[in-house]
User: Which sequence fits this backbone?
């Protein structure tokens, strides 16, 4: 079982029946037919050679073919932390992606965000009380060689300062 990588190098050689106590190892170069996710993918190995103190006691075929499964690589989509003032406008929510290979695009589409306090969904953060809320991302599509794990961010709604009145008029005749 191999996780998707553009350059596959996760191959281990083992000898079927070395004599007890013999020091011998095998190495070689293996390539997948392609690096895309799939089952029973053809793997071709070449330049197989033996090494070690007892390698001269053995012979090896220098090429071999087998199959292996290539599974999707997981990328993490994390909602970025945001803040706003109580009664203000909602911020623009954004996310980061980590775990993609090189410059590959691992996710596509428009992200959706749900703001929650515990199990309660906050539909309008402009009227929510000051405090911390979860920003929960969703709705993106994983490209063919990837799966997505979502990580929540935090929305902090800050308290606002109120200045005391500076001009108070008392009307005793009312």
Assistant:
């Amino acid at each position: 079982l191999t996780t998707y990588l553009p350059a596959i190098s996760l191959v281990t050689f083992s000898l079927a029946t070395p004599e007890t106590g013999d020091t011998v190892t095998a190495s070689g170069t293996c390539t997948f037919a392609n690096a895309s996710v799939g089952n029973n993918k053809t793997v071709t190995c070449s330049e197989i050679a033996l090494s070690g103190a007892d390698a001269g006691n053995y012979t090896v075929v220098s090429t071999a073919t087998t199959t292996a499964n290539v599974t999707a690589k997981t990328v993490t989509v994390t909602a970025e932390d945001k803040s706003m003032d109580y009664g203000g406008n909602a911020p623009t929510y954004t996310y980061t992606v980590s775990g993609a290979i090189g410059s590959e695009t691992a996710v596509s589409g428009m992200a959706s965000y749900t703001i929650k306090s515990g199990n309660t969904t906050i539909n309008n953060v402009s009227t929510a009380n000051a405090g911390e809320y979860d920003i929960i991302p969703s709705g993106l599509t994983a490209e063919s060689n990837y799966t997505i794990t979502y990580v929540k961010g935090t929305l902090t709604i800050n308290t606002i300062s109120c200045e005391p009145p500076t001009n108070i008029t008392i009307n005793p005749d009312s």
The two ends are 86 Å apart (CA to CA). The CA atoms of residues 77 and 150 lie 5 Å apart.
